[in-house]
Each structure stands twice: as structure tokens, then as C-alpha cells.
Amino acid sequence: MQSKPVVLIYDINNKLVDDVAHELGSSGLLTTINTYNEGNAVEALQQYDRGFGLLTNKLSCVITGWNNHKKPRDQFLYRLRDMENKSPLRNATPVILITEDHRPDLKQRALDAGVVAYLHPDTFKQSLLSLMVELIEKDNATELNQRAKLQFAREQFANESEEE
């Protein structure tokens, strides 16, 4: 019997973590690890490391958000990427951001860091499960990131056109 893909969920908003876990867990397709603080999230990442952190970890995805109490460079996303960049044998773990903060500069930084989707907490339920299935079954994090970047560029172009 093959084990279910594992998804790490971390956010300081406990209700959001629980909502995401319920949405994914009720499908029966995924196993979730719910973490409510960064220390526990990092510990969970380390538990799923392979080859003493030299190889790509066994997590299928990390779902997180922006922590409004931290500077952009201190966010969990960048801590994860720093851990991954320490070894040339590691691939980037797919990350989905669910956040209310849709500042264009933050969204651009997230997409540049390889985020596969940037979702809003009020509407994530409409697309999260299908996104996860596509991510895991097709193993196409890079393609999803490119699609998200293209969508963002379209939004930016539309906003600039409206302002003129």
C-alpha cells in the first residue's frame, strides 16, 4: 500500500491552518501536518528531510502565508529556501501561499521564490484541492509557478491600464 502525500501547513492564524487541513484531509487523498508556529514548522521540515538535509525532503507541498509581524526577508518561505539552497542535491519544495496580504511587491517576491499559487483565505477552498491534485499527480510545480507569474503579470497590466 502506497502512503498518502504529506502536506505541511503552517500559519500563525490557527483557524486558517485548521480550515486548510479540513479541506485537504476530508478528501482522503492527503495527509496534513498542522503547525501553528514557525519552530514547529521547521521541526516538521527537518523530520521529513532525507540524507541529513542533503536530498530533497519527502513533503509534497508546504502551505503557508505571510507573517505580518516579520519583515519580508524573515518570512518562513525564505527560511525554507535557505535550507534547501544549502545542498545542490535538493529541489525546491512546492509552496502555496494563502494570505490576505496581496501587496504586489510581496506577491512578486513570492512568485520569484517559486511559489506555485497565491490564494486568498476567503476563496482558497474553490481551488486548493484541484491545485494539490495537479501539483502532486503531474509533479509540475515549475509549470504552476509560471502560470501564477503570468496571471500576476496580466493583473499588473490590467491595473496599469485602469490607472491611465
Cα(first) to Cα(last) distance is: 58 Å
Helix content: 40-55%
Placed side by side, the strands forming the largest sheet appear as: 2-1-3-4-5
What is the β-strand count? 5
Give the number of domains: 1
Which architecture does the CATH hierarchy give at level 2? Answer: 3-Layer(aba) Sandwich
Give the secondary structure arrangement, pairings included.
Layout: E1 6-10, H1 14-25, E2 31-35, H2 38-47, E3 61-64, H3 76-85, E4 95-98, H4 104-112, E5 115-119, H5 128-138, H6 141-163
Parallel strand pairs: 1-2, 1-3, 3-4, 4-5
Helix pairs in contact: 4-6
Q: What is this structure, in a nutshell?
A:
With 164 residues, the chain is of the alpha/beta class. The chain contains six helices and five strands, in the order βαβαβαβαβαα.
Could you characterize the architecture of this molecule?
- The chain is an alpha/beta fold.
- It has one domain: 3-Layer(aba) Sandwich (Rossmann fold).
- Helices cover 46% and strands 14% of the residues.
- It contains 6 helices and 5 strands, in the order E-H-E-H-E-H-E-H-E-H-H.
- The chain has helices spanning 14-25, 38-47, 76-85, 104-112, 128-138, 141-163; strands at 6-10, 31-35, 61-64, 95-98, 115-119.
- Helix 4 (104-112) runs antiparallel to helix 6.
- It is globular, with a radius of gyration of 16 Å.
- The model has no long low-confidence stretch (mean pLDDT 88).
